[in-house]
Design a protein that fits this description.
Elements lengths: L1 E2 L2 E2 L2 E3 L5 E6 L9 E7 L6 E7 L5 E3 L7 E6 L4 E6 L8 E8 L16 E3 L2 E5 L2
Parallel strand pairs: 1-11, 3-12
Antiparallel strand pairs: 2-4, 4-9, 5-6, 5-10, 6-7, 8-9, 10-11, 10-12
Length: about 130
């Protein structure tokens, strides 16, 4: 199922920041975690980060560690991806997705672990 859930994308210069939002309330209320993925033209989809709905634990791809931060606001049922020190190679369509499987473990970055997907938001890092 694809729904309009992401927002916050846009054009930013290298070194800049963006914050993406994911309206997790539009997914099933039974999700166990929310993940962020991205896909650049001609490249495979890449898992960026994930946050657990139970304990808030997080995982990041090596390519974004130290620059991106995933967080959640349980009162609003929102998940955010704060992206700092953006690089041209971060340019991609960013998707948030929900998994109902709490056992995602090391498979957190596998798309087939997720049951619900947003429609994506474009992030372009360029001068």
């Amino acid at each position: 199922q694809v729904q309009s859930v992401e927002s916050g994308g846009g054009l930013v210069q290298p070194g800049g920041s963006l914050r993406l939002s994911c309206a997790a309330s539009k997914f099933t209320p039974h999700y166990r975690a929310i993940g962020w993925f991205r896909q650049a033209p001609g490249k495979e989809r890449e898992g960026v980060s994930i946050i657990s709905s139970s304990d808030g634990s997080t995982v990041y791809a090596d390519s974004v560690k130290g620059r991106f931060t995933i967080s959640r606001d349980n009162t609003k049922n929102m998940v955010y991806l704060q992206m700092n020190s953006l690089k041209p190679e971060d340019t991609a369509v960013y998707y948030c997705a929900a998994t109902t499987d709490s056992r995602y473990g090391r498979k957190w970055n596998k798309g087939d672990m997720y049951d619900y997907w947003g429609q994506g938001t474009q992030v372009t890092v360029s001068t």
